[in-house]
Design goal:
By secondary structure, the chain is mainly alpha-helical. The protein has 8 helices and no strands. Helix 1 packs across helix 2, helix 2 runs parallel beside helix 5 and helix 5 packs across helix 7. The longest helix is centred in the middle third of the chain and has 48 residues. It is elongated and about 105 Å long. It starts with a helix and ends with a helix.
């Protein structure tokens, strides 16, 4: 997935907002940090729509002229600087929100694909659910390696259980366990 492809998708989807390539390019760069695939890009593009509309709204407000023309030139400069800093703060906040959304979407997609792959390998959900929270879906993530690792661990678990079984402690008193013979009689004599 290239930056230009994402910009083109954003431009086609949100042409009515009138945003420039610089804003769309920034959003495309954020989307690329989540490593979107051809299957997930449409969902990600739909997901950033609210953020793009907020950016467009903020830009429109910043473009509007103040209604009070009687302000002194110095006051106008201060107001403009405040607006610029406020706009920058809003833009940075929106970019942070978009980044979080892109990251969460990417992690959810990777997690869903991992669950499908584990189910296809007939690994029970009860077994792999405890591992899903420990998987690092960051840069070094490889679905194939993770599936192989979990499959190997599950096979080792099955083999160990088949070989050793569910070993427990000593049988309860009075059940006829080898070390427990006569223990019930001793307990009765002690109580009498």
């Amino acid at each position: 997935m290239t930056r230009e492809t994402i910009i083109e998708k954003l431009r086609n989807k949100y042409a009515n907002l009138g945003l420039g390539d610089d804003v769309l390019g920034s959003i495309a760069d954020l989307i690329l940090t989540g490593n979107p695939t051809d299957e997930t890009i449409d969902g990600v593009v739909d997901g950033v729509g609210g953020s793009l509309k907020s950016i467009q709204s903020s830009l429109d407000k910043a473009r509007q002229k103040p209604t009070d023309e009687k302000k002194k030139p110095e006051e106008k400069k201060e107001t403009e600087e405040k607006k610029d800093s406020t706009l920058e703060e809003k833009f940075e906040k929106l970019l942070g929100t978009v980044q979080q959304l892109v990251t969460k979407t990417a992690i959810d997609d990777k997690k869903g694909n991992l669950v499908k792959a584990l189910s296809a390998k007939n690994i029970p959900e009860k077994y792999y659910n405890k591992f899903l929270t420990t998987v690092d879906y960051g840069e070094g993530y490889s679905e194939d390696d993770t599936v192989k690792h979990m499959e190997t661990e599950f096979e080792d678990f099955k083999q160990a259980f088949a070989t050793e079984g569910a070993k427990g402690g000593n049988p309860p008193i009075g059940t006829g366990g080898t070390e427990q013979k006569g223990q019930a009689l001793k307990d009765i004599e002690r109580l009498a």
